[in-house]
Amino acid sequence: MNFDPNWLWYIPLLPFAGFVLNGTLGRKLPRAAVAAIALLFTAAPAFIVAKLWMAMLGANAPLTLSVTGGPWIAVTGFQVNFAFAVDHLTLIMLGVITGVGFLIHVYATGYMAEEEGYWRFFAYLNLFMFFMLVLVLSSSFLLLFVGWEGVGLASYLLIGFYFKRDSAANAGKKAFIVNRIGDFGFLLAMFLLIQHFGSLSFDSVFSQIGAIPHGMTGGFLTTIALLLVVGATGKSAQIPLYVWLPDAMEGPTPVSALIHAATMVTAGVYMVARCHTLFDRSPFALGVVAIIGAATAIFAATIGMVQHDIKRVLAYSTVSQLGYMFLGCGVAAYSAGIFHLMTHAFFKALLFLAAGSVIHALSGEQDMRVMGGLRKRIPITFWTMSVGVFAIAGIPGLSGFFSKDEILYRTFTSTVNPGLGKLLWAVGLITAGLTSFYMFRLWFKTFFGEPRFDEHALSRGHGAHDDDHGAAVHARSDTKLTAVLEPEHDSGQAAHPHGVHESPWVMWVPLALLAILAAIGGYVGVPHGLWGHNEIEHFLDPVFATAGQPEAVLNAAPVSYGLERGLAAVSVLVALLGLFAAWFLYVKKPGEATKIARSVQPLYNLLDHKYWVDEIYGVVVTFVLIVARFLFGGLIDTVIVQGTGLGLSGGTRGMGEIVRRMQSGNIRSYAGWLALGAAAVIAVVLFGLHPFHR
Amino acid sequence: MNLNASILTLILLAPLVGAVVLALIPEREGSKTHHIGALIVALVTFGLTLHLPYHYSYSAAPGSFQFEQNLPWIASPAIRYHLGVDGLSMWLTVLTGFLAPIGVLASWKTVASRSKLFFTLFLMQQVAMLGIFLSLDLFLYYGFWELSLVPLTLLIATFGRTENRRRAAIKFFLYAFIPSAILLVGMLWLYVRTGTFDFVTLQAMATAHSISPNGHALWLCSLAFLVAFAVKAPIFPLHGWLSDAVQEAPTAAVMVLAGKLGLYSILRFSFGIFPDQSRHIAPLLIALGAIGIVYGSLIALVQTDLKKLAAFSLLGHVSFIVLGIFTFTVIGLDGGTFQILNESLIGAAFFILLGLLYERYGTYEARDYGGLAARHPWMVTMFVITALAAVGLPMLSGFVGEFLILSGAMQSVAAHHVLWTVVGTTGVIFSAAYMLTMIQRIFYGKIGVRPAEVNGWDLSAREQIMLWAFSALFLAMGVHSPTWMRAIDTYGTLTADKPAHFEPGSFKHLESETYSSLPMHPAEEAHR
Q1: Which DSSP string do the residues of A445-485 spell out, in sequence order?
Q2: How many CB atoms are located within 10 Å of the residue B61 CB?
Q3: Which residues of A touch B528 (CB under 8 A)?
Q4: What's the CA gap between A511 and A101, in Å, rounded?
Q5: Is the C or the N end of chain A the one with fewer CB within 10 Å?
Q6: Which residue in chain B is spatially nearest to A631 when comparing CA positions?
C-alpha cells in the first residue's frame, strides 16, 4: 500500500488548525461546536496514522518515510529544514499519541462539560497535540526541540487552566521553569553537536557517529549525551528535576492523563531512544541514565506510599514508572523502554481517567481518606480502574507485567556496565513491590470498606463553592481527617450536585477501551522465555539495530530461558506480596497502617514531606533571589552603575553620603550593618520572595 | 524615473518634510490633526522603506552598497552626502519605518495636549534614526547621531511620567553626549590620518592596514568608537542611564530608546574600520555580554515595577546580541543581527502592552495588579505571545536569534568561550522566570487592588491592529527566518573570521566533508 509522504505534514497541522479555530472563534461558539472541532481535528490525524500503519505493515522491507519542506534557519555553513521522518519508533509514538489522545479528548468533552473556558481548554489540548506530533515526527534535533518546548508551553497553559487559583498558576510556572532548566542542557548539547558535526539532522549526526571506528567511545560524545540527559530529566520528571510533575496535578484530570502520564512526559525516553546511536558510544552516559532511572523509580514509589490525594499517588507513580523506562534505556534495552512507554500510556491514562471519574462521582473530592466503598456505586469505573491497577502492579497476564518484566530481565542480564545490572535489578524489583503496594492501597481505600464521605453533603451539592476554593487548605499536608468535604481541585467538578453517580457514556466508553488496551497491550511483547515471540522488539529492530553497536550486540549475553522464567516468578511473588500487604493494612486491619506509621514517625515524616526536596530547592531559589536583589540590584546596580551615573550628573553627594555613613570607622556601626544584612537574609528566607509562591 | 537612485533621500525627506509641516500647523485643543498627520507621514515613510527589500539585489557583489547616492557636499573638509544600504542596514531601515506608524498609534490617546511638539519631535527622531542607518559618510553619520539625542531628551523632559523626568533626561543626555564628544575626536583623528570621512574608503584602508602605522593611537581611536556605541546600546555595565530613561520616556520614545542604534554602529563602524582591534577586545565583550544576560534577567526577576522590569529585560536582550556579534562567527553575527530586529520588535510590543495597562489602571506597580486574565482575554493573549517571543519559544522570532547567538558563542575561538556560552545559556531559564512571574502577577490569581477600583476595557480596534501586526511578525520571523536572514547573511559571512572555527579534534576529517555536503544556502546559490 502506498502512502504519500506529504500526508505527514497534515498529522500535526490538523490539530494546529483545530487550535486556531477554537482559539479565535471558540469563545463565541456553542460547546457542542467546540467539542466537534476539537474531536474532528484529533480524529483526522489518527486516521492518517492508521493509514500509515497499514502502509508500513504492508511493506515488505523496513520502511522509512521522510519529507522535507523549506528551510527554517539558513545561514552560511548551517541549515535546518522543516523535515519529518517516520520509522518504526515514530510509528509507535504516533499510534499512542493519536489513539490515546483521541480517547482522552472524547472523555474530556464529558468531564469538562460544565467548565468555564471550555473552548480555551480544547484549543490548548489541540495545541498540545500539534507540538507533541511535531516532536516525534521531526528528523532533526532542532525541530524535535520545537515540539519539546511547545509541549512545555501547552503543559504550562493547561496546568494553569484554573488561573484564578494561585496554586494552579504557581504550578504552571514551576513546570515551565523547571523544564527550562532541562532545556538549558538540551540547548548546550545542540551547540556542541553543531560544533562537532556541523548539522543537527539525525541522519547526518548519526551517520557521522556511525562512521567513527567502533573502538571510539566517550569523550565529547559523553558530554553531549549527558547534556541531553539533563534535558530528558526535565521533560520526563526524573531526579533531580521531577519536582514539577506532582504539582502539575493542579490541571484538569484529562490533562494529567494525556500530558502528564501518557505522552509528554515520555518525550525524554523517546529522545534517549532516538539518540541511541550517541548513547551506545558512551557507556558512562548510559550508566547515568540507568542509575537516574532506578533511583527515581524507587524514590518516587516511596513517596507514593503515603500520599492521600488520589491524583498525587498517580503522579508519583508516573514519575516512578518513567524511571523504569529510563532504566530500560540505560541498559541499552531501548525497545523494552519503548514497550513500557506504550503499555504505561494505556494503563496510566486509564488510571487517571478512572480517577477523574471517581472525582467526578464525588463532585470534586480527591482525598482518599474520605472515599471508600465506591465499588458498588460506580461499577464501570471500578472495573475499568481495577484493570489499570492490576496492570501497573505487574499481575501476570496484563500489559504492565510483560513490559516491566522485560526491563527487569534486561537489566539483570545487562553487560553495558558490568556489575551495575544486578544492583539496579534489585532496586527495580523492590520498586515493583512498592508499586503493587501503593496501587492496591489506592484501590482498597477508594473502592472497598465503609464509605467515608458525607453522602448528605454531596447531594446537597456545593452551591456555596466559589472561585475562592483554591484557598481551601489542601489535603496533601494536613494530618487530620477532614470529615466535611472541601471541594478542591477541578472546580467544575463541584458544580453539579447530584450525589454519587456513575459517569456519562462519553466518559466510560474511553475508559472501557483503554481498559481493553491495558489488558491486552502487553501481548505484543511476550518474551521468548515465556513462550512468546517478542514482536515489538523485532518490530523496532530496524531502528535500534542500524548504526553503531546495535542493541543486540550490547546485550549479547547468552539467552537463558530458565533465568528469564525464574526472574519473572520472583517479580510475580513481589507483586503479590505488595497486594497482600495492602490488603492486610487497609482491609483486614484498617488501623494497622496508622500504628506502623506512628512507630516509624521520622521515616514517615520524611516520606510525607517528600524528602523535603521542594523546601531544599526553595532555599536555592531564595539564595538566587537574594543575590539578584541585594548583590546585583542593590550593591552593583544602585551603588556602582547608577552611582557612576550620579557622578556624571553631578550628584556625587548622594552616593558619598551613603558611603560615608557606612564607612564611619565606628565598630558598632559596622556590626550594625552586619546584623542588618543578616536580618535581611533571614527575613527573606522566612517571608518569601519566592517566585513559585509569589 | 528610476526610484532606486533616489529612494534613500526620499526616505529621509519624508519624515523631515512631515516634521516641518506639522510644526507649521497651528494646534487646537482636542484636535487630532497632528496625530493624523504624523500617522500619514509615518505610513508614507514605511511604504518608502518597503521599496528596499523588494528591489534589493542578492546577486550584487558581497559587501557592496546598494541604492547608493554619493554626492560631494563640502569640498574641504571632504564631506560627502553618501547614502547606501547593505545586508546589515536594509532590514533595520525597514524596521524603523515599521515602528513609526506603530509609535503614532501607541501615542494616540496618551498624547492629548502639546501634540504638535510631540509629533514634530517624534518625526525628527525618525529622520535621525533613518539617517544613522543610511549614512556612509562619517561626518554625515555623526550629524544624525547627535540629532538623535535631542528629540529623545526633549521627549523625556517634556512628556515624562513623573517629577523625575528632568533628571532622567539630563542623565540620558549626558550619558550619550560625553562619549559622543570622544567619538567626534576619534573621527577627526581618522580624518587627519586619512583625509577622508568616507566609510567605504576607510573600510578598504582598514583591510589593507593602511590607516595608521601607530597601533597605539589606532587602538585608542577604536575605543573611542566602541565606548560611545556601548553606552548607547547599552552594554553592561554602561547601562546606568537606561532604567531612569525607560521609566520616564513615553511609549513611542521608549520603543526606540535602546538597542538598535548602538548595536548597528558597532557592527558597521567598529567592525568595519577597526576589525583587528574589535577582535582583540572581543573576549571582554563576550564576557560582558554573557554577564549582562544573567545580570539583566536576574534583576528583572526581582522587580515589581513593570517599567524597571522591562528596562532590565531590555539589558538582557541587548546583552544577547553583544554576545553574538563579538564571536566573529557567521552564526553569531547572523544571529546577533537578526536578533537586533527581534529585540526592537519584542521590546516595542512589550512597552506598548505595558502602556496599555498604564492607560487603564494608572500604575506600573505589579503588586497592584492581579487576576486580569478574565477581564482582558485579548490582552492576556497578546502579553503571553510577546512574552513567549521574548523568552525564545521556538517558532517565534526570539528563538532563531538566541539559538544562533549561543551556538555561535560555542564556536567562537575567544578565551573561555565555553564558560561564557554556558553562562549566557542560563539566560533562557531566568528570562522565562521573570516573564512568567510578571504575567502571573498581572493576570492570574485574584483581582488586584487597582483593577478592583477601576474598570478597564479589553483591547480596542486600534490596539488590536498594532498588536496583531507584532504577533504576525513574531510568527513569520520565527517560522520563515531565511526571508530576513538572506540579506543579513551577506554581511555576516563577510565580517566573520574565515574559515568558520570548529573545534579541532578527532573530527577534523569529518568536518570538511560535512561542510561541502551541506545543502547550499540560497544566498550562496544566487552568488554563483
Answers
A1: HHHSSS--S-HHHHHH--TT--GGGGGSPPTTT--S---S-
A2: 8
A3: none
A4: 13
A5: N
A6: B299
Residues of A with Cβ-Cβ distance to B303 under 8 angstroms: 633
Backbone angles phi, psi at A490, to 5 degrees: -60, 105
Grid cell listed for B440: 502571573
3-state secondary structure of A67: strand
Nearest CA in chain A to B433: A177
Question: Chain A residue closest to B434 (CA)?
Answer: A691
Angle at A19 between CA A17 and CA A23, to 5 degrees: 120
The length of chain A in residues reads: 694
Partners of A79 in the β-ladder: A74
Going by the DSSP 8-state scheme, the letter that residue B198 receives in this structure is: B
Which residues from chain A sit within 8 angstroms of residue B432, using beta carbons?
176-177, 180
Q: Which chain A residues in 593-652 lie under 8 Å from chain B, judged by CB atoms?
A: 624-625, 627-629, 632-633, 636-637, 640-642, 644-645, 648-649
Radius of gyration from C-alpha coordinates of chain B: 23
> How confident is the model at residue A236, as a pLDDT?
93
Question: Regarding beta strands B66-74 and B79-85, do their DSSP bridges make them parallel or antiparallel, or are they unpaired?
Answer: antiparallel
Three-state SS letters, A655-691: HHHHHHHHCCCCHHHHHHHHHHHHHHHHHHHHHCCCH
**Euclidean distance between CA atoms B429 and A149, whole angstroms:** 12
Contact of A76 with chain B, judged by CB distance below 8 Å, is answered with yes
CA count, 13 A, side-chain hemisphere, A392: 39
Judge whether A228 and A141 are in contact, CB under 8 Å. no
Cell for A661?
555613613
Q: Do the beta carbons of residue B175 and residue B220 sit within 8 Å? A: no
CA distances for A193 relative to A72, A221, A279, A329, angstroms: 18, 9, 14, 21
Nine cell digits for residue A534: 517478542
Label residue B253 exposed, middle or buried (CB < 10 Å: 0-12, 13-18, 19+): buried
Closest CA to B494 of B207, B222, B145: B207
Confidence of residue A544 (pLDDT cuts 50, 70, 90): confident
Q: What is the dihedral of CA A126, A132, A136, A141, to 10 degrees?
A: 130
pLDDT above 70 (res A547): no
- Does B241 reach chain A within 8 Å, measured CB to CB? yes
Q: What is the mean pLDDT of chain A?
A: 83
Crossing angle of helices A334-361 and A399-412, in 10° steps, is: 140
Q: Which residues of A touch B479 (CB under 8 A)?
A: 72
- Backbone phi, then psi, for A516, in 5-degree steps? -60, -45
CB atoms within 10 A of CB B32: 13
Task: Give Rg (Cα) of chain A.
Answer: 27
**Can you tell me the distance from the alpha carbon of A649 to that of A662, in angstroms, rounded to the nearest whole number?**
23
Per DSSP, the residues of A494-561 read: GS----S-PPPHHHHHHHHHHHHHHHHGGGGG--GGGT---HHHHHHHHHHTSSSS-HHHHT-SPP-H
Nine cell digits for residue B510: 569529518
How many Cβ atoms are within 10 Å of A454's Cβ, its own excluded? 14
pLDDT-based confidence at residue A564 (cuts at 50, 70, 90): confident
A645 CB neighbours in chain B (<8 A) are: 171, 175, 240-241, 244
- Cell of residue B517, nine digits: 555536503
Tens-place pLDDT, residues A335-386:
999 999 999 999 999 999 999 999 888 888 888 888 888 888 888 999 999 9
Q: A646-650 long-range contacts, Cβ below 8 Å, gap at least 24?
A: A648/B171, A648/B174, A648/B175, A648/B178, A648/B240, A649/B167, A649/B170, A649/B171, A649/B174
Are B521 and A627 an interchain contact pair (Cβ–Cβ within 8 Å)? no
Whether A88 and A542 have beta carbons less than 8 Å apart is answered as yes
Inter-chain touch A164–B445, beta carbons under 8 Å: yes
Which of 369-428 (B) contact A at CB < 8 A?
A: 371, 373-374, 377, 388, 393-395, 400, 403-404, 406-407, 409-411, 421-422, 425-426, 428
